[in-house]
Amino acid sequence: MSDHPRPTVLTNTTLLDPEDGALAPGSWLLIEDGVIAARDTGDVPAGITDRAETVDLAGATLMPGLIDAHVHVTALSADLGSVSDHSPFYVAAYAAGSLSAMLGRGFTTVRDVGGADWGLALAVEEGLLEGPRLIFGGKALSQTGGHGDFRPRGRHGKDGDGCCPGAGLVCDGPIEFRRAAREQLRTGAHHVKVMLSGGVASPTDRIDSTQSSEDELRAVVEEAEAANRYVTGHAYTARAVNRGLRLGVRCIEHGNLIDQSSVELFVEHGAFLVPTLVTYRELSRQGAENGLPAESQAKVDTVLHRGLEALRMAHEGGVRLAFGTDLLGGMQEHQSGEFAIRGQVQPAADVIRSATTEAAALLGLEGEIGTLRAGARADLLIVDGDPIADLSLLAEPERGVRAVLQGGSLRRGRL
């Protein structure tokens, strides 16, 4: 099946609807003009078989394509400061390979939260690059010495003017934060990311610090809301997370060190949490060989062992959870490993929901992606087996994912 010149009906399949975690064997699904036109269980109506190409999936599971809500497709190294020293053309070439590999793992949409810009998103949309639909936020906003400031201690002066291919933009004071937020939104950013606490990959801050003043955060939230967009915040500790939620941040990245008070605030504000547990496992295993500076390596253990308990607490407390990975450099190949980690504390249906319908809701694309509803884009996975009974089929896509369709067109594998 190439680009969709005629309707196609996929038959003899088990539909996996992530909204209720239900499986419907003996089903069919009609793709027309790149979207899901109809679906049902039982025989395909004659009016459809007369005009559509029929493909028998031999009992395989058909489910929505996956969504990763926290990627850095331009992060060619765990030394994020070094990215700015590369040619933008080289970084774009690296991103092309990164995006293609993500599509091969079954991710048909990804949200980049620091690094990718409108040019990469447009290149994917126009077919110049093969990869998942790219939802971008541009550069993350950071105070001097914050998580988006990747200068070593001995370097002074700001890095570049915002045009270099780095992940962060350093600004200070509400005027600079407001201007920086407007600049990202001017390029079409779908969200604005701001640093609420210290981080692992930044060389000069503490994990337990709070970052960005309340006036700075209010300015960013106000600009995002004015543009009908939202603010997502990098944060680990309950103090930093709670502060951001109270000031209108709609989504928190990581959250490894939250407590019960944080859970209550997430629920009260209807905010999302995007844990990224696989990145800490891989940073612990192979961060150094992938460029993680020594001062950053020392911080990994601080967040590594608390992440799973934070996920359990959030899940049991009813927090809206989206799937994310945050892998850097050569560690990106472990993207699907997040499924196995989350499966230790969440039912498989909930993990799948976090990578489909819940992630779509975070991105503002509910009903359009991450679902089998009629009218949704035909971004689909064909899986040999039942992922709800065996989540490893998604954790090991080379074994479980038979084919990836995007917009109704076959991108990987075989039908």
Automatic annotation (TrEMBL):
Sequence ranges assigned to domain Amidohydrolase-related in this UniProt record: 61-397
InterPro entries the record matches: Amidohydro-rel, Metal-dep_hydrolase_composite, Metal_Hydrolase, Metallo-dep_Hydrolase, OTAase-like
CDD domains: Met_dep_hydrolase_A (cd01299)
Pfam families recorded: Amidohydro_1
Protein name per Swiss-Prot or TrEMBL: Amidohydrolase family protein
Native source species: Nocardiopsis alba
